[in-house]
Structures are given as C-alpha cells and as structure tokens.
Amino acid sequence: MSRELIVAAALRSDLGTLTMRELAADLGVSHSALYRWVADRDALFDLISEVMVERVLPADRPTADGWRSWLARLAWAMHDEFGAVPGYAAHVARPHRHHQPSFGRLRARVIEAFALAGADPEQAEQSWYVFALGLVQWLGLPTRDLGLGQAPPRFDLYLDTLLRGLPTREPVAHPRPGSPRAPGAA
User: Fold this and answer.
1) What does the pLDDT look like over 128-167, one tens digit per residue?
2) What is the pTM of this model?
3) Phi then psi for 133, rounded to 5 degrees?
4) 75 contacts: CB under 8 Å, gap ≥ 6
5) pLDDT digits (tens, 9 = 90+) for 70-120
6) How do the domains of the chain map onto residue ranges?
7) Which InterPro entries match (predicted)?
8) To which CATH superfamily is domain 3-164 assigned?
C-alpha cells in the first residue's frame, strides 16, 4: 500500500460518488487499513489535488511575451485532466477547503502570469480569481444538455473569451437597473 496506489485507485473511480469503503475494497484492503494511510475523504482529495496540480501545471514559467499562451496551456491541461476523472471537476467547482500547498502553487504561478502581463498586484490577484472561478465552474458543468436546449459552449470559445478579458482592469461604470442612467429610466 502506498499513497500512489491510493491515488491511482481513486482516479479510476467516479470521485463524485466514491466512498472510503469502496476505495478500500478496490485496493483489496480493509476499511480500517485505508484509514492508516488517509485520515478521511478530505485527506484523500488533498492527495488527489497534489497529483492533479502536478499534472496540469506547466513545467516552464510564464513569460512577459508568452503569458497568455502559458495560461491557455494550463487551462487546456485542466480541461483534459479534470475531465478524465469523473467527479473531480465538480468537486473542485463546489465550495470546499482546497489543498493549500498544491493549489497555492497553482495560484502563485497564475498570479505571476498576470503580473507579467502588466497587472498590478491587486489586479493580478483579481485576475486569478476570475480565471480560476470561471475555469473550474465551466469544467464542473455537466457536458449534457443544461435544460436550456443546449450543452455548455465549446471550451475553446469560452477560453478565448476569458483570456481576452484578462488581466482585469478598472471596470467601466455600468448603470445599475433603476438608476437614472439606466436605459428606460426616467
């Protein structure tokens, strides 16, 4: 038994429904033996997140002239890797405690990319939130009809739109409904 075997077995399962008891059975060990290696489901997801971030984070660092393509490579890697593990993207998209060491590395590298794009520290931080939230929410969507008569937009179109709008900048003041400047307001 090793952490690598545990993660490999978990990644072969649907993480949305996987129980610790099922994982132990898949590994051929007792339920209590598994808990000697992994304290609980949160600890299991911490291990999985370490592996997933290692898989998606590009080995190179972003550059001033290649930050956008670096983010695109990261996003496509997330698309491919998260999509290959049933339930993982949906788990990451839900509010929960993220594994700080792995997601912290991912966050720092994405913020670095936005800083290289010319964003000040606050804008780079805000751009990270927009990028990460937008990406994981899209990846967590079901791939089937969303009840609107169509599936989610193609990932390439979504990613292109997302990256063209980033890094963030000071927003244009848009009138709020009911304000004097809103269309149709008296």
Assistant:
1) 999 999 998 888 877 655 566 677 778 999 999 999 999 9
2) 0.83
3) -65, -45
4) 135, 159, 162, 163
5) 999 999 999 999 989 888 888 888 877 777 888 899 999 999 999 999 999
6) 3-164
7) Cro/C1-type_HTH, Homeodomain-like_sf, Tet_transcr_reg_TetR-rel_C_sf
8) Tetracycline Repressor, domain 2 (1.10.357.10)
